[in-house]
Design goal:
Layout: H1 10-18, H2 26-36, E1 41-44, H3 51-64, E2 76-79, H4 83-97, E3 106-109, H5 116-121, E4 127-130, H6 132-140, E5 151-154, H7 157-160, H8 163-175, E6 181-186, H9 191-200, E7 205-208, H10 212-215, E8 219-225, H11 231-241, E9 247-250, H12 254-266, E10 271-274, H13 280-291, E11 297-300, E12 315-318, H14 325-332, E13 342-348, H15 353-363, E14 369-371
Parallel strand pairs: 1-6, 1-7, 2-4, 2-5, 3-4, 5-6, 8-13, 8-14, 9-11, 9-12, 10-11, 12-13
Helix pairs in contact: 2-3, 3-4, 6-8, 14-15
The structure holds adenosine monophosphate.
Length: 380
């Protein structure tokens, strides 16, 4: 399969060749023609599968054939759960959109930054990427109109459709026109996704790509039994002894992520915390530094366990285990992607042993538990 055979324009093919996408990923081969045929999509595909370009390319093709609105009536709405994902999707739209004639205007809006510049920038936007709360705020002040939406994309739909977003999503659905194309992408097929599939999608093309669970085989998993008070030294020992170049560490709270990052810095390891209490600028800067390989360790809460794609991330460490097995799979899925193997290391304190067994059972894979008593890491 080639991108040419999918019917993309020469301008888009040129961008694809510049960025060295030599052939479509499986999700793209299926999704691109279906979206161009104006079909609804139910895509079960994890981050790393290439789903973003899978919907971005055909949506740009479709818009080229349409009259572009120049008022506040947005034509394509992409809803995402986090600001970081909004920025990431916006970058992909901008990359390809620049090559498309007709000046398609693309904008991402999300909370945590001033609303006024977004209100002004919304004039003439054709493709809007948004987090639900900020979108509703902008709609309430008439900065954006949703009644002309032709295509709705729900990225990370399993997250968008769970309880935390339910009220906001219901309000948004009421503002959308009944007749529209719906593209729903989710890493997992949960009951929530299944329910919404039934009410939202019309005769969808179902595309199922290996899920994070299958991807797990690419990831080498190790766990250490370690009491809470020895987790810090063990972390520093592993990072230094294994000369880990880039590590994503997951902590269970804002406080803990700050503490862990601070201790790493005190021991000479470049580390930054990443959580919801930081300013948007700090979040964006940290992501950029981490993505470009300038930052060695990012200590994050589950804020970035979803959707965020970091190329060639070799290590994920669960400093604290997540509560849900699903989140465990999402977290470790940040490594071991795009055919590059990765390693996931989990710290299991004695009280977590049972919980870790539950996680392994759900994942369908057993992980060797090494007792940290047998490792000499005093002084780290
Ligand atoms: P996504 O699942 O959309 O987050 O994309 C995963 C990663 O794959 C991103 O870093 C893309 O740049 C990359 N990618 C997407 N499609 C292709 C392709 N056809 N060839 C090479 N890389 C791709």
């Amino acid at each position: 399969m080639t991108f040419e055979s999918l019917g993309l324009s020469p301008a888009l093919l040129e961008v694809l060749s510049t960025i060295k996408y030599s052939e479509p990923y499986p999700v793209q081969s299926e999704v691109i023609p279906a979206v161009m045929n104006r079909k609804d999509i139910l895509g079960i595909a994890p981050t790393g599968s290439g789903k973003t370009a899978g919907y971005v390319l055909p949506l740009l093709m479709n818009l080229q054939e349409k009259k572009l609105s120049r008022n506040r009536h947005v034509q394509v709405l992409v809803l995402v759960p986090t600001r970081e994902l909004a920025i990431q999707v916006n970058d992909v739209f901008k990359l390809f959109g620049a090559a498309v004639p007709g000046k398609i205007k693309i904008l991402a809006v999300y909370g945590g930054v001033a609303v006024n510049p977004q209100m002004m920038a919304l004039q003439g936007v054709n493709i809007l990427i948004a987090t639900p709360g900020r979108l509703l705020e902008l709609e309430a002040s008439n900065a954006v109109k949703l009644s002309g939406i032709e295509t709705l994309v729900l990225d990370e739909a399993d997250k968008m459709l769970n309880l935390g977003f339910q009220e906001e999503m219901n309000r948004i659905f009421e503002l959308l026109p009944k007749k529209r194309q719906n593209l729903l992408f989710s890493a997992t097929l949960s009951d929530d996704v299944n329910n919404i599939n039934r009410v939202l999608l019309h005769d969808p093309v179902v595309v199922k790509i290996e899920n994070e669970k299958d991807n797990i085989d690419l990831i080498e998993q190790t766990a250490y039994l370690v009491p809470d008070e020895r987790k810090g030294p063990l972390l520093r020992y592993l990072i230094k002894q294994h000369s880990m170049k880039q590590v994503l560490v997951f902590a269970s709270s804002v406080y803990s992520s700050e503490k862990v990052a601070e201790k790493l810095r005190n021991s000479g390891v470049d580390a930054t915390a990443m959580h919801s209490k930081l300013s948007q600028k700090a979040r964006t800067d940290a992501m950029e530094r981490f993505r470009s390989g300038k930052l060695r360790v990012m200590v994050a809460t589950d804020l970035i366990s979803r959707g965020i794609d970091i190329k060639f991330l070799p290590y994920v460490i669960n400093y604290e285990l997540p509560r849900s097995p699903k989140d465990y799979i999402h977290r470790i899925g940040r490594t071991g992607r795009a055919e590059s193997p990765g390693e996931a290391i989990s710290f299991v304190s004695p009280v977590d042993e049972h919980h870790f067994r539950v996680i392994q059972k759900k994942m369908g894979k057993w992980v060797t538990l090494i007792d940290s008593k047998n490792i000499e890491f005093r002084g780290f």
